[in-house]
Amino acid sequence: MGEPRLTWGELVKREPRLRSLYCFARDLVKPEGKPFCANAVWDAVFEPQFEQLVGWFAQVQDGVVNTQEAYDLAFERIYEALPDCDHDGMCWTVRGAL
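^ that's the sequence the OP posted. Answer follows.
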């Protein structure tokens, strides 16, 4: 049997700001009449904060928050909370999606 997997609850106990980032993603409303790209929003708004909170370069260096497992768990949880893209074409080709 391996080690127990890290849970979202344990991760936000160690870095509570991740819960705030998740709630912001969950409550984000797509702008009316404009295309929306979750990737563009992630890159511009979420990623700069996210990388300070979890993963190898996290401010907290406790052997859990700064692991790849923590990064993957938090990324999946927060990114999945964003509204879906609703633009035509590939995400990387979208302009003005913010």
